[in-house]
Write a structure and sequence with these properties.
The complex is a heterodimer of chains A (334) and B (301). With 334 residues, chain A is an all-alpha fold. Chain A has 12 helices and no strands. The radius of gyration of chain A is 25 Å and the shape is globular. In chain A, 37% of the residues are buried. Chain B has 11 helices and no strands. The chains are: A mainly alpha (334), B mainly alpha (301). At the A-B interface, α1, α6, α7, α10 and α11 of A face α4, α5, α9 and α11 of B.
Chain lengths: 334, 301
């Protein structure tokens, strides 16, 4: 792999992080007022046992981001904080830091999102390849319209329907949350099955919808690949049609799918946030939802930034893996 | 592949003659276009008739008894804050579509301009525009929109909402239109236009645009659909125009009051059915327009 390419790709990653931090800093200040400070003040006036802590926070905030400081000094201070991944305390859950809250939610989201993305990508790609295979049974064509229709629906809307049908009507699955209230978290068989049971519906609503998209993309690529000269040549040579299908068509059609995966991650995540909210699943999406309700700016900014970092890393990895999958790409300057 | 090609599906059959006949015959070939148009027309009919026969003032809270299941007086039932849900749907559907259309038009408009400039002139402009679009697309859009919406949360209106959504809606059109222009600009008629002394903007408007119109149409429908999706997402998270009865805000209240768990099924069936019709209608319309824009892509469904 070309070192220049890796360096360039890393540069883009850093650029994304800088843009995200800059947006986080300037957007709340565009309106002229400082909503972060206002929220802090409001919270300080509420009183309660965390009073002194919040007041200390206001003082520190004023000292670092106060209006008496020039904007660029505030900006530099903010960038310094972000580069240390220090997002301060959560305003609404005071003694807890933003990082603590994110760390608690991340395993849920990564688990849900990782599983569903891999599953839907694998199933969808497989289905899409089959759909384009001339020897596939005829009834498979009937799968297309439902796949198309499903793929046009937002994840969370389908989730609502599933929740009503499977959880509310027939009581097959738990409706809400990540585990039963009162369950004792731990590595016991009971708890693990409980967690899995709660994950099935949110996962299903993502997998069912996303699979359609991957299947359609793969089918389109397969149709294009099947028209290539080398496939016709393989046919003329008299190769077995299964060999042509697997080694000539699928193998080439799968590559653009991987690129599409890198591009789709952001969209999948946006959709998954809403699924979590609908199901009250204790991941990043729900924490973000509650933070928005409480106007907890530090927590919102922290989550948005961390998610952008995580997705940027995932895309970076996929981009770096890609040349290993496709020997035609060397990223050398022509 | 190895097998004989499947016999052509569309057997020549007796079609009605005349112009109407031609439309019917085309519709038979482009079924997605028909499905899309029918779904959207049904929605337009619902809203249109509703505006005439339903009092949309009842979409305000406390204008009806709370939590009535569907009845003769309240065909869609009422919600917990005493909104008549039929009136809410009649008033809210056009609002949601409005957000989608404003944001979609802005997005495709800005995107098209950037794409034409980038792809026709190439050079530094292309590097910058493509770079921004490519980077912007890998970032989860909803989260950036959340940051924007949170910063100006107080008293958001429907139109402000549309502008917020539009702030990211140009990324995708820019990318896809640019790719199309890149293939067009190498065609010989563009070369001829250039040699005969047409200026750059003139070539873009007179030669490139008309050839891309069907494609721009498909991109627009797609952008509208994405904008509606983004706006509903923001609204469900509680970042929408709180005072307005849009479809997304209705879902926000559904979620807020846990209507699903409480068995108030009529509260969410109507908005979900309408949102489904919107998305499916727009989706099939895009597929149909794609087919017009690029008939060689004919999908043998």
């Amino acid at each position: 792999m070309h070192a220049g390419y890796v360096a360039k790709r890393l540069g883009v990653f850093v650029l994304i992080l800088w843009l995200a931090a800059t947006l986080n800093f300037f957007l709340p200040r565009l309106s002229g007022m400082d909503p972060v400070r206002q929220k802090l003040l409001a919270q300080a006036q509420l009183g309660g046992y965390v009073q002194t802590g919040i007041e200390a926070m206001v003082k520190e905030y004023d000292q670092r981001f106060g209006l008496n400081k020039p904007l660029w000094r505030q900006y530099v201070a903010y960038l310094a904080d972000v580069s240390r991944l220090d997002f301060n305390y959560s305003i609404a859950n005071y003694p807890r830091t933003v990082n603590e809250m994110i760390a608690e939610a991340i395993p849920w989201t990564v688990g849900l999102l990782g599983m569903t993305t891999l599953l839907s990508f694998a199933i969808g790609t497989f289905l899409g390849a089959l759909l384009a295979w001339p020897k596939a049974p005829r009834w498979m064509q009937w799968l297309m319209p439902p796949l198309w229709a499903l793929h046009a629906i937002p994840f969370f809307l389908f989730g609502l329907l599933l929740m009503y049908a499977l959880a509310f009507r027939f009581g097959l699955f738990p409706m809400f949350g990540g585990y039963s209230a009162g369950a004792f978290p731990g590595l016991t068989l009971e708890f693990v099955t409980d967690v899995l049971a709660h994950a099935i519906l949110p996962a299903l609503s993502i997998v069912c919808v996303a699979t359609g998209g991957w299947a359609l993309g793969m089918r389109g690529m397969m149709v294009t690949t099947q028209g290539e000269d080398y496939v016709i040549f393989a046919e003329a040579k008299g190769l077995k049609s299964l060999t042509i299908f697997l080694r000539y068509c699928v193998r080439n059609a799968i590559l653009p799918q991987t690129t599409a995966l890198a591009l789709a991650l952001g969209q999948i995540l946006s959709g998954a946030v809403l699924v979590e909210v609908i199901f009250g699943y204790p991941g990043i999406g729900t924490v973000l939802f509650l933070a928005i309700r409480e106007n907890d700016h530090f927590l919102i900014q922290g989550i948005v930034f961390m998610v952008i970092v995580a997705l940027g890393l995932a895309t970076l990895l996929l981009d770096l893996i890609y040349p290993l999958l496709d020997p035609r790409i060397t990223y050398k300057k022509a | 592949m190895g097998d004989a090609p499947a016999p052509p599906r569309i057997a020549p059959r007796a079609s009605p003659p005349g112009r109407l006949g031609a439309v019917v015959r085309y519709g038979r070939r482009n079924l997605s276009l028909v499905v899309g148009i029918v779904l959207l027309l049904a929605l337009a009919l619902f809203v249109g008739l509703g505006q005439v026969f339903v009092d949309t003032a009842k979409a305000r809270p406390l204008s009806a008894p709370a939590l009535q299941p569907p009845s003769f007086e309240y065909p869609f039932g009422t919600d917990r804050q005493g909104r008549d849900l039929l009136a809410t749907m009649v008033a809210g559907t056009p609002l949601t579509l409005r957000i989608g259309f404003i944001a979609g038009f802005l997005g495709v408009g800005i995107g098209a301009i950037l794409a034409f400039v980038a792809a026709y002139y190439r050079g530094a402009a292309d590097v910058v525009i493509r770079g921004i679009a490519d980077i912007g697309l890998t970032v989860p859009g909803l989260l950036v929109l959340i940051i924007i919406a949170v910063s100006i949360k107080e008293g958001l209106t429907v139109d402000q909402m549309a502008v917020i959504v539009a702030s990211l809606a140009w990324l995708n059109p820019t990318r896809t239109i640019r790719a199309q222009v890149l293939t067009l600009r190498e065609r010989s008629y563009v070369e001829v236009a250039r040699l005969s002394g047409m200026s750059g903007p003139e070539i873009i408007v007179k030669e490139l645009m008309p050839n891309l119109l069907p494609y721009l149409g498909a991109t627009l429908v797609n952008a509208v659909s994405n904008a509606i999706l983004a706006s509903i997402g923001l609204e469900v998270l509680g970042l929408g125009p709180i005072e307005s009865p849009t479809l997304g805000m209705t879902l926000y209240w559904v979620n807020y009051n846990a209507a699903l768990i409480n068995g108030w099924w009529w509260w969410w069936t109507a908005p979900i059915a309408i949102i489904l019709a919107v998305f499916l209608g727009l989706f099939f319309l895009t597929v149909g327009l794609d087919e017009i824009a690029n008939p060689r892509l004919r999908r043998s469904v």
